[in-house]
Each structure stands twice: as C-alpha cells, then as structure tokens.
Predict the 3D structure of the following.
Amino acid sequence: MYRNLNKIIIAAVFFCIINQGTVQAQASIYKLHSLFMYNFTKHIQWNNIGENFTIGVYGSETAFKEVEYNFNGKKVSGKEIKVVKVNNAGDVSASQLVYTPKSNKAKILNLFEDSNTSNTLFVSEDDLIKYGIPICFTINGSKLGFKVSKKNIEASGLKISSSLLSLAEVVD
C-alpha cells in the first residue's frame, strides 16, 4: 500500500516539475513575442488609436499575463497601453492589436472572420497568413522570426514601414 502511495506521489511531483517547465518555456516565448509586438507598434501606422492603445490577447491566460507584464508602463504614439482579454468579436474591434497564441485554429479563424478588423493588427503564433492574418511568428531552428502579408495588412487599413518589412519574411 505504501509503495503504491509513494509511486503516486513521485509521479505527481514529476508531472508538476515537467508541467512547470512547460509553463516557463511558454512564458519565455510569450515574452519574446511581446518584445516583437512592441517593435511592431513602432513601425505600423494606425488610422485612429483613441484614448488608449489596446492590445487584446485571445486564449491563453499565461500569454495574457506575460503580455500584460511586458507592456506595463509602455506607450504607443504617446498613448498608454492597455492589455485586455479577447473573448469575442466586440473585444477585437476595441483593440488596435490582437495577439493569438497557439490555440484552437478554428476558433481563432472564427474570431477573425466575425470581427471588424479595420484598424486592427492581428498577430498569430500559428501560421495563419493564408487565412487573412497579417503577421505570424515563425521559428527556424532556434531563431524566432515573423512573416508579413502586406496585402493582409492593407486590408486592415494599416500601413507598415519598409524597415519592418526588411526584417520579415514577406509573403506577398
């Protein structure tokens, strides 16, 4: 009986250690994505920002917390950055940038299709460029990069600088 209990305890501890490592690895990726997105905000021109520059995060609670932490105290075009959770299409239209970490692809695409994406930059961890998402992150070996669709950015009513395009894999 005690052997079985010890086995269960050891298995639970092992699972917690592995799970903790996965969460920390995800948080590190979200931190890097946040740094990239902050640089995107410097090289994308929005038509109207409003009172705050709003970044919506869809899906992952870990991603939301990491993005919120990394944008704390930063500004875009002199506007305070506000990070919100995206739950529906209304939340998208209130955001200038929407970040979608890896998640259910169908739900992300439904959210994108159901939203008014005018003046909103969608940035995805998944490669969803062919579905209309303007920017997605890529990993080549151990190097983080990003793809850009100029056509998708223009469809959102946004303008992108040539300096940002020079750093990206431009697909059209």
Summary: The chain has a mean pLDDT of 85. The chain has one domain: 2-170.
